[in-house]
Write a structure and sequence with these properties.
This protein folds into two domains: 2-62, no CATH class; 79-170, no CATH class. The chain is 71% helix and 2% strand. It has six helices and two strands, in the order H-H-E-E-H-H-H-H.
Length: 171
């Protein structure tokens, strides 16, 4: 069994293309609340608290010959850098909030929906609020734009759920 796994690892290491390796790395970094700095991806702001995860991903990437690398560049403690990161937090929260509300609308309009799916959408909104708070602590500033977008998304979600409840009680 170990020989088979070793052979598979050696094959994969030599044959994964760079896109597949990047996909795996992005998945591994997802739990670090990365903030996309460049719209097409590839440059992320990740807090110092996740340094060990970043190092693990860097070690993983070194195993492949496809040329995908991970570099860490410290963000200097300057107003411009804090502004850049908070702007990207706002943008990411905006995009994700709209996506979650749209997903929730589709779920609630569907004839068959699961409570698990609805709860998952609501958890996503809570996760965005928690991420915003973590970045506010990290940047030592309020990210009012993200808070406003989240407030609007939460209001929409409540209105959608209220319609569902009132529709269920009338039907």
């Amino acid at each position: 069994m170990l020989d088979k796994l070793g052979a598979q690892y050696r094959f994969d290491r030599e044959h994964y293309d760079s896109e597949m390796v990047r996909h795996i790395a992005r998945g591994a970094l997802k739990g670090t609340d990365p903030i996309t700095v460049r719209p097409s991806g590839g440059i992320y702001f990740i807090g110092q608290a996740h340094l060990s995860r970043v190092e693990q991903v860097r070690t993983f990437l070194r195993q492949f010959t496809v040329g995908t690398r991970l570099y860490s560049v410290p963000v200097l403690n300057e107003v411009d850098n804090r502004t850049m990161v908070s702007d990207h937090v706002e943008e990411q929260v905006k995009v994700e909030s709209v996506r979650v509300v749209e997903d929730l609308k589709k779920l609630l309009q569907a004839e068959r929906r699961s409570e698990v799916q609805v709860q998952g959408a609501l958890r996503s909104l809570r996760g965005l609020a928690e991420m915003t708070e973590r970045y506010e602590d990290l940047l030592q500033t309020r990210i009012d734009g993200a808070r406003a977008v989240l407030g609007a998304a939460q209001t929409q979600a409540r209105a959608l759920l209220d319609r569902l409840v009132s529709g269920d009680s009338q039907g």
